[in-house]
C-alpha cells in the first residue's frame, strides 16, 4: 500500500485534526464524538444541518462544514457508519430551538445509526428530522442498501438546505426543500480502478486492465456491469443515458451538471468528461445553468467519476447560488 | 492506460473546451492559440497577468484564470512548453496600456518560449515583463532546468500579483511583489507513484512497490533520491527539513502552509500530512497564518504531494487575503 498514512487506526482522527488545524477560526473538532462542527454552531436563529456517513468520501462531509452548508459532520471510520451514540451526541451539541436536520445518504448502516440517534435525541426533547438522499440510479437495491444509494448528488441537497437554513427557514421548510432537491437529482458513476482502504492495505476488489465497473458504488460495491473501457465520450454517453432517462430530464429543462471525481482521477480528465456531457445535453435541448467539476464525494483513491444532473427551477437555482464557505476551497 | 480520454492528441483542447463551457460568462477559450482568458480582459486599468506552462498540471494554470488571479493562461501540450508564437499572440490579446506580466515556472523550454514571445510582443510596442518562479528546493539544476524548478509555490505568486494588479498597481510594482513572494516561497515534493501521459499510455518512470521519489519534479523527473516509503509523519519531517532549512524559516516567522496533491492522492491523505506539518511548525515557533490543502499544481495522475511555505509579512498576507475567483471552486 502506497499511501500517506501512519497507523491506519488513526486515519480518520488525524484527518479531522488536520481539517480543524487548517480552519482554526471557523471549525471545531470534537474528538470524543469524531465530529467537525462550525465554531459558531448551534445558532438559535437557524435550523442546524448535520450529515454523517462513513469516511473515505472526502470532501464529503467533513470538508463541507461551513456557512451556508453543514453545521456539523459526524463521520464513522472508513466506509463505516458512525455509532448511534455519536449521532445522538452530535444532535445534542447542535440542538437549536429551530431544530436539527439529519441528512443521511441511503445506506442501511447509516440509516440505522441515524434512526436510533434521532430517537435518543427526541427523548431529550430535541426536535429532529431525517432526510434520506438516494440519487444513484445505478441499482435499485445494492450490497449495502435497501433502495437506491446516496452518492455525489448529496452535495446539492446540502447546499440547498444549508442556504435555506441560513436564510431563516424553519425545520418543515428546510425538510421540504431537501426532499424537493433530492427528487430532481440523479447520479451515475463509473470506476476505472478499485480503491484501497488503509486498514485493508490492498484493493477492495479486482478490475481487469481493460475493465471498468459501470454504475459502481462509492464503496466499490458492484454496479450494473463490468464493461470494456471505451473512449471518454462514449462513457459519458452511457452515463447520460442512465441519468437522463431516469427522472426523466427533457428538452426545455435547465439543469445543474456535476462531474465528480472519485479520488484518483485528475481534474483535466473531469473537464474532458464535462465537455461532452454539456454538449450532448445542449443537443437534447437541455440547458446547463450551473456547472460543478471536481471532487465532491470520493471513494478514497479510486480512479473514476460520476455524473449528476439536478433539474433547476427558480427556487433551487436561487438556493444553489447563495453564498457558502467550505473548508475545501482554492483561494 | 485507464483514463478518461478520447484521442490523446485532443487531450488539452478538449479539456480547455470543458473549462470554457463550464464558465461561459467569465472565461473565453481561443483555440487558435490554445488559451483561456478572462472574458473581461484586457482591462485598460490593470496590468494583465499571464502564465503559460505545459499542460498536465491542472488546476495550474488554466483553472486559475479569473478575478484576482490570472487574466490568461496559454498552456502547451502535456508537459510541453507553449510555442513562442502562442505566447506572442497571448501577449497581444492581453495587451493593456499598463503592461503585461508573463509568469514562467523555471523550465528551460518555457523560458525560451517566453523570452522569444516577449521580444516579439515588445517589437509591437507592447510593454511586457517576465517573472520566473523557482520555488523547488529539491535540486539546484535538473533534467529540464538550469537553476531551481518552479512548482506549486507558483500559486502564491499568482495570487499576490493578481491581487496587486486588481488593486491598480503598475507593472514595476506588480513585478516587485511577484519577486518578493517568490523569494520567500519554498517547496519540496514526493512521489508515491509515476504518472501516465495520455500520449505515452504507460507510466513515465518506474517506482518499486515500496519506493518513493523524494524531491520529485512535476514531470516525474528525478529528485534527490529514491527511498523506502515511511509513515506519513516521517515523510512530512523530511519535507519540512528540506524546506525550512533552505530560506531558512525561523522561530517567530508567520507562514502560509500549502499541502498540494499531485493528482492521484485523495484529500484525506493531504490533511493527514497537513496536521503533522502544522504541529511541527508550531513546535519550532513558526505560526501557520494561512493554510492551503488540495490540488494546485499536479502531475497528471501521480500519487504524491508537495509542501510549500511562504514567509508572510503584512503586505503578502493582505494580498493573499484579497478576493479572487477561479474556475476551480467548490460552491
Concise overview:
The structure is a homodimer of 331-residue chains. With 331 residues, chain A is of the alpha/beta class.
**Largest sheet report of chain A:** 6 strands, mixed
> Care to count the β-strands of chain A?
12
Seen as an oligomer or otherwise, the chain set is homodimer
How are helices and strands ordered from N to C of chain A?
Answer: HEEEEHEHEHHEEEHEHEEH
Domains of chain A, number = 2
CATH homologous superfamily placement of the largest domain in chain A: Dihydroxyacetone kinase, domain 1
Inertia-based shape of chain A: globular
Structural class by helix and strand composition of chain A = alpha/beta
Mean pLDDT of chain A equals 95
End-to-end C-alpha gap of chain A: 32 Å
CATH topology assignment of the largest domain in chain A = Rossmann fold
Compute the number of helices of chain A: 8
In the predicted model, the low-confidence regions of chain A spanning at least 5 consecutive residues are none
Percent in strands of chain A: 15-25%
Amino acid at each position: 500500500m502506497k499511501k500517506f498514512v501512519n497507523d491506519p487506526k488513526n486515519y480518520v482522527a488525524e484527518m479531522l485534526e488536520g481539517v480543524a488545524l487548517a480552519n482554526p477560526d471557523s471549525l471545531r473538532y470534537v474528538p470524543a464524538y469524531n465530529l467537525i462542527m462550525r465554531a459558531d454552531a448551534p445558532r438559535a436563529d437557524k435550523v442546524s444541518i448535520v450529515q454523517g456517513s462513513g469516511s473515505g468520501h472526502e470532501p464529503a462531509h467533513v470538508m463541507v462544514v461551513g456557512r451556508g452548508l453543514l453545521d456539523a459532520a459526524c463521520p464513522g471510520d472508513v466506509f463505516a457508519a458512525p455509532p448511534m451514540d455519536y449521532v445522538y451526541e452530535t444532535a445534542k451539541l447542535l440542538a437549536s430551538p429551530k431544530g436539527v436536520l439529519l441528512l443521511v445518504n441511503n445506506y442501511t448502516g447509516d440509516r440505522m445509526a441515524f434512526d436510533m440517534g434521532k430517537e435518543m435525541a427526541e427523548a431529550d426533547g430535541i426536535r429532529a428530522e431525517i432526510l434520506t438522499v438516494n440519487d444513484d440510479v445505478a441499482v435499485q437495491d445494492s450490497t449495502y442498501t435497501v433502495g437506491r444509494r446516496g452518492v455525489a448528488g448529496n452535495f446539492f441537497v446540502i447546499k440547498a438546505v444549508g442556504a435555506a437554513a441560513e436564510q431563516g427557514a424553519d425545520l418543515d421548510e428546510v425538510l421540504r426543500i431537501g426532499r424537493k432537491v433530492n427528487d430532481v437529482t440523479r447520479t451515475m458513476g463509473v470506476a476505472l480502478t478499485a480503491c484501497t482502504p488503509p486498514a485493508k492495505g490492498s484493493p477492495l476488489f479486482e478490475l481487469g486492465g481493460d475493465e471498468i465497473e459501470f454504475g459502481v458504488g462509492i464503496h466499490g460495491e458492484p454496479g450494473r456491469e463490468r464493461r470494456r473501457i471505451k473512449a471518454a465520450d462514449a462513457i459519458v454517453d452511457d452515463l447520460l443515458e442512465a441519468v437522463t432517462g431516469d427522472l426523466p430530464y427533457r428538452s426545455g429543462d435547465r439543469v445543474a451538471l456535476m462531474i465528480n471525481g472519485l479520488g484518483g482521477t485528475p481534474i483535466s480528465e473531469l473537464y474532458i468528461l464535462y465537455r461532452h456531457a454539456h454538449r450532448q445535453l445542449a443537443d437534447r435541448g437541455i440547458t446547463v445553468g450551473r456547472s460543478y467539476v471536481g471532487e465532491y464525494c470520493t471513494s478514497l483513491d479510486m480512479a473514476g467519476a460520476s455524473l449528476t444532473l439536478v433539474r433547476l427551477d427558480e427556487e433551487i437555482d436561487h438556493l444553489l447560488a447563495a453564498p457558502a464557505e467550505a473548508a475545501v476551497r482554492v483561494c
